[in-house]
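I had to read the description of the data format several times before I understood it. In essence, backbone conformation is discretised, so a fold becomes a row of integers matching the chain in length. I therefore recommend that a typical entry be quoted early in the introduction. For illustration, here is how one protein appears when written out as sequence plus structure tokens.

***
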Amino acid sequence: MEKCQCDSPGFCDYFQKEMAESPPNWQWCQNATKEEREKHWEDNQKKLARARAGPWNPEDINDRFITTASMIEDCKKYLLPKLAKLNIKGVIGVPRSGLLPASICALWLNVPIYAAGEQGQIYPLSNSSEFGGLRMKHFKEKSGHIVVIDDTISTGRSMDSFVSSIHSTESILKCGLYVRPEKIEDIDVHGMAAQHPYLLEWCFFNTSWMNTSLLDFDGIFSPDVPIDVCEDEDKYIEYITNVEPFYHRLPEMFQCRGIVTARLNKYREVTKEWLAKYGVEYDELHMYPTEKEAIRDLNHIAESAAFKSEIYSRSPAKIFVESNQSEAILINRKTKKAVVCPDAERLYK
């Protein structure tokens, strides 16, 4: 803490937060006493603990951008305890996203994963044994329920259609991880009540939402550029030319409404080449004016947010996807429009 003398705003590893324009900010931190900084650290630890525990009511996932990692934790915390108390023979996932929670629950419950054939017959998936995988090699089939699991149940049509296609004498239970409150009574097991709006990481980037979304670049399509790389232009160009993408965030089925980035416009060609290399299609590419680089660097978060907000305000886009939580909050405040921050798992609206 004695060496806490940052020369510019940014993310503070000590406080684990952005030290930017809102106090206590980086200038405050330089002039604060040791006692003041220790108190701020203690207060921030309490906030971080609350954030890690989850700021959302378990019975309300409103305003969440649910990541795949959080989905796994929600399965463990809210769905698995209910399924474990049932006499379960196996599970089936509703194709396609229902296969995620179904596979997880099957592993933890140590039961087979079943599939439905074209004629509606159900059978255990095969691999090294008829029940699928080495763990099931010596598994003996038992009586019990087959649980049909989907990740979400909104209208219930997908679940009903899938269950009605199954022709079996087995006892079938309907199960959803995230279920609209008014549909809970229509199924047998639910994990969490889920009132819209919420978005799901595992399908968001390959849905029609892309047609009406503006997306940040660094931190969304690829990792943020390390600070030491930013300070050397040759290294910077090499990095943004060759950096691997976040493959799970590459839109492959739909074209983005636009990309809005605080990267300088002088790197437009290398940015376009990277996007083309990974098949990212978009209507517009907005980049920060090169001649305003010094202004941007005085307060990167505030200037970047202002630049993105101006474009988003004029755009018919309905969602802005921003990598930095501080910028996401500012963009939402300035535009009064929805902003998604995937790493913070938040949907600001």
User: Anything to note?
Assistant: Residues 205-348 form a domain with the Rossmann fold fold (CATH 3.40.50). Confidence is low (pLDDT under 50) at residues 50-60.
